[in-house]
Q: What sequence folds into this?
């Protein structure tokens, strides 16, 4: 509605289309035996949190065959920080019997470059999960400028 000629009805239709698109992407990921591809995963996480105005930390919990068990928001925050507790991630992973996971969060600033705190937190989560034989496949940071993979960047 910030643009001339876009009325409430049109804005509602556009929001509904975005929501349906998001749900379809989620179903594609959830309906497969395993996450179908790196591209599908990146598209899914971008759709879900790229345009959030507050930082959000999500965990995609996976089963033995890398099928998505659940995608859960583990922390919501401000424009540059989301509180996160590694022990809560471990507790939830054990509770739902996950074998591995992806860490995902957004940078509302648009710049997906990892901060020192992002790197330290990722290391702490990996260390907490290691005794339970739960693998952290990657940590993805989503911003308007793209998605940064810790693994691809040599940070995992």
A:
């Amino acid at each position: 509605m910030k643009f001339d000629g876009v009325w409430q009805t049109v804005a509602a239709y556009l929001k509904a289309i975005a929501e349906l698109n998001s749900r379809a992407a989620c179903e594609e990921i959830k309906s497969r035996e395993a996450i179908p591809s790196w591209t599908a995963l990146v598209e899914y996480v971008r759709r879900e949190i790229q345009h959030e105005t507050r930082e959000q930390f999500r965990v995609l919990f996976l089963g033995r065959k890398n099928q998505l068990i659940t995608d859960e928001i583990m922390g919501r925050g401000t424009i540059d920080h989301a509180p996160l507790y590694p022990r809560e991630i471990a507790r939830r992973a054990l509770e739902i019997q996950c074998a591995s996971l992806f860490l995902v969060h957004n940078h509302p600033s648009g710049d997906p470059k990892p901060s020192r705190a992002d790197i330290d937190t990722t290391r702490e989560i990996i260390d907490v999960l290691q005794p339970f034989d739960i693998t952290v496949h990657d940590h993805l940071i989503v911003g308007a400028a793209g998605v940064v993979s810790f693994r691809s960047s040599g940070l995992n």
